[in-house]
Write a structure and sequence with these properties.
Blueprint lengths: L3 H24 L7 E8 L22 H6 L4 H4 L1 E10 L6 H15 L6 E5 L5 H11 L6 E4 L12 H12 L10 E4 L2 E4 L4 E2 L8 E2 L7 E4 L2 E4 L24 E5 L7 H8 L4 E6 L10 H9 L3 E6 L14 H4 L2 E2 L5 H12 L5 H10 L1
Helix pairs in contact: 5-10, 10-11
The structure holds aspartic acid.
Aspartic acid binds next to loops.
C-alpha cells in the first residue's frame, strides 16, 4: 500500500497528464490542405481529338488550364489549386527560352510562403528534358512535379485526369520535399534525372529502366522507396536569375557510316558544346575524330554520351578523353547531357570543372 501522501501525489500527476492530453487534443493542428499552383504548358494532356477513340492524330495543346482543373473536381479534396497558363504548345516545340521563363516562374512562386508545391502539365515528348532542366535550376526543396498524358483529354480512358490528380497529390505530399523534380505518370513516381520516354504511345512509357522508379501513387497516397543520389534543385550551382539565354549546344548521333558533316555544320554555326551520342560506350568513328579535335581546338566542349540508353560512359574507355580534352556524360542520355552542358557553360569552359559537374548532377 502506498502512503496516502504518495497516492495523492500520483493522483495529482495522472490528473495533470489527463488534462495535458486533453489540451494537446484540443490544440491538435487541423490538417491544412497544401497550396499547389498548376502551371500549364500544353501537350497531349491538354489535347483534343475528333472522336473518343482518336489516340493518334489529335491536336495537342488546345484545352486551357482552367478547364484542365475543372475536369478533375477531386483535386479539391487534396489541395487548394490554382492554375496559370505559362505556354500552350506541343512539347516538341519547347525551347531554351521557354525553359528559362518556366524556371524563373517556378522559383518566384516557390519563394512565396503561400505556395507549397508546383505541378507542371507538359507534353510527353520533351517532358524528361524540362524536368531535368528544372531539377538543375529550381532553388527550393518544395515539391515540383511534371506530368503529362499519353491520351488526349477527349479519348476513352484518357490518362490526363488521374495523372493530374496524382501529380497534385505528390506535390502536396511532405514525403516529396527534397526529392528533386519528380515526374508522375501511370501511378509511378520517377526522378527527373533518370526517367525517359521509352515507348512512342503506351501509357507505361516513362521509365528509369535500370536505375528504377522512386515510388508509387496508390489509394490517394504517395509511397517513396528510394531517391536519386545526385545533387539537385537547392543544392546546384546554377542560377537562372543570372542569364536570359543559354549557350548553343547541339547533339550529333552515332551510327554506322557516320561522317563529320552534321558536326562540322553545328560548329560552323557557333556551337559552344557538342554532345556526341556515340554507339556503344560512346565510341568515336575514326572518320569523325579529326572534326571533333578541330572543334575542341576552336574551344567547343565535346561531351561523349551514348545512344544505347543505359550505363556509364567510361572516361578514357573508348577514347582517350584526357588527351583529347573531352568530357564524358556518365549515365545521362544525350538530351539531358545537352541540358547539363548548357548550364555548365554558363559557369565555366574548363573541361575538368565540367567533368566534375557531370559526376555531380
Ligand atoms: N507531341 C505531344 C507533346 O509532346 C505528345 C504528348 O504530349 O504526349 O506535346
Amino acid at each position: 500500500m502506498f502512503p496516502s501522501s504518495l497516492r495523492r501525489a500520483l493522483f495529482a500527476l495522472s490528473a495533470c497528464m489527463f488534462l495535458a492530453a486533453g489540451a494537446a487534443q484540443a490544440e491538435a493542428p487541423v490538417q491544412r490542405l497544401p497550396n499547389i499552383v498548376i502551371l500549364a504548358t500544353g501537350g497531349t494532356i491538354a489535347g483534343t481529338g475528333a472522336t473518343s477513340t482518336t489516340t493518334v492524330g489529335y491536336t495537342a495543346a488546345t484545352v486551357g488550364v482552367d478547364n484542365l482543373i475543372k475536369a478533375v473536381p477531386e483535386l479539391a479534396h487534396v489541395a487548394h489549386v490554382r492554375g496559370e497558363q505559362v505556354f500552350q504548345i506541343a512539347s516538341e516545340n519547347m525551347s531554351n527560352d521557354n525553359w528559362l521563363v518556366l524556371a524563373k516562374r517556378v522559383n518566384a512562386l516557390l519563394a512565396r510562403g503561400d505556395v507549397d508545391g508546383i505541378v507542371i502539365t507538359h507534353g510527353t515528348d520533351t517532358l524528361e528534358e524540362t524536368a531535368y532542366f528544372l531539377d538543375l535550376t529550381v532553388k527550393s526543396r518544395k515539391p515540383v512535379v511534371v506530368v503529362g498524358a499519353m491520351r488526349p483529354s477527349t479519348a476513352m480512358s484518357a490518362d490526363g485526369p488521374i495523372n493530374l490528380y496524382n501529380a497534385t497529390l505528390v506535390a502536396g505530399s511532405a514525403d516529396a520535399i527534397g526529392k528533386g523534380v519528380l515526374v508522375t505518370m501511370n501511378d509511378q513516381i520517377q526522378a527527373a534525372r533518370e526517367v525517359t520516354k521509352t515507348n512512342t504511345s503506351t501509357l507505361d512509357t516513362f521509365k528509369a529502366t535500370e536505375l528504377g522508379m522512386l515510388g508509387y501513387i496508390q489509394g490517394n497516397k504517395a509511397y517513396f522507396y528510394r531517391q536519386s543520389t545526385r545533387k539537385n534543385t537547392a543544392d546546384t550551382e546554377f542560377d537562372v536569375s543570372q542569364f536570359d539565354t543559354l549557350p548553343q549546344v547541339d547533339i550529333v548521333y552515332g551510327y554506322a557510316n557516320m561522317g563529320p558533316l552534321a558536326l562540322d555544320a553545328f560548329v560552323a554555326a557557333g556551337a559552344k558544346g557538342i554532345i556526341h551520342a556515340g554507339v556503344g560506350d560512346g565510341s568515336l568513328a575514326t572518320r569523325v575524330v579529326p572534326s571533333l579535335k578541330a572543334a575542341r581546338a576552336k574551344g567547343t566542349v565535346i561531351v561523349r554520351a551514348s545512344r544505347v540508353g543505359q550505363g556509364i560512359v567510361a572516361r578514357n574507355g573508348e577514347a582517350n578523353d584526357d588527351q583529347l580534352d573531352f568530357v564524358v556524360a556518365d549515365t545521362l542520355n544525350a538530351q539531358k547531357a545537352r541540358i547539363l552542358l548548357m548550364l555548365a557553360l554558363t559557369k565555366t569552359s574548363d573541361t575538368k570543372e565540367i567533368q566534375r559537374m557531370f559526376y555531380t548532377y
